[in-house]
Design a protein that fits this description.
By secondary structure, the chain is of the alpha/beta class. It contains ten helices and twelve strands. Strand 6, helix 6 and strand 7 form a beta-alpha-beta unit.
Amino acid sequence: MTQTQPHVSVRDLRKRYGTFSAIESVSFDIQQGETFALLGPNGAGKSSTIEILEGYRDRSGGDVTVLGVDPQHGKRAWRERIGIVLQGSGESGSATVREQLAHFAGFYPNPRDVDEVIDAVGLTDKATTRIRSLSGGQRRRVDVGLGVIGRPELLFLDEPTTGFDPEARLEFWELVCELKREGTTILLTTHNLEEAARLSDRAGIIAAGRLIDIGRVDEIGGKDARIPVVRWHDQNGTHEERTTQPTALVARLHAETGTELAGLQIIRPSLEDIYLGLVGTHQMNMTPLERELV
């Protein structure tokens, strides 16, 4: 990936609401063409961070540029270069799905094909249905379609597949992969850690307003967090052992017992396991004063 000027640059970002610190000294970059997942529990500061980047909320301190522009001063030409899928915009108008997407496509110089977008978000059978008649999940798919119709340089996806069935989710993931191939930069927030692992190049984990880890999805948490666990049962109960050589451990245990190990499992930590471990450790290490401040 060419390391040109980042599409998103955040330095020492801070946001306070009275005495409440929602974001404290957060810094990260997102390079052109990269998919970056911002992960964290509810109330961690994700939404405030995203709203600042989108230009919908002022920051209390720090420096931010998005596509080379301070989002606090972004004009219409800047907004035409970004796409936004909010967590719950929920289009509910009287237009049909195709009419709504075609209307929004007219705002952009090089929009995606309307029917291709309808197919990609799993609404082909509902293309002529009025949006107000759709289910909540189907309206969510319209939201996604409106976010990508303009071929944005930078796309914000906030919980994009909420309400999607498994087939629609896979179709949407393929759309994201196509956008990546076209060079679209994507900032994703999701509680679906499989989605984050599947789509993202890098991830940042935010907890209590602080960025507690950042890195490639296959490296975040460090090597120790990725050590497999071997689990088995015997007459003395359940046993677990972390090891970088699980196959060798299983062979040794088998040689020692002379029998097959009951309930044998080799568990390789997923992104969700690593995420939960990082957030849990951070929360345990917070002082009472820090917990009070956030």
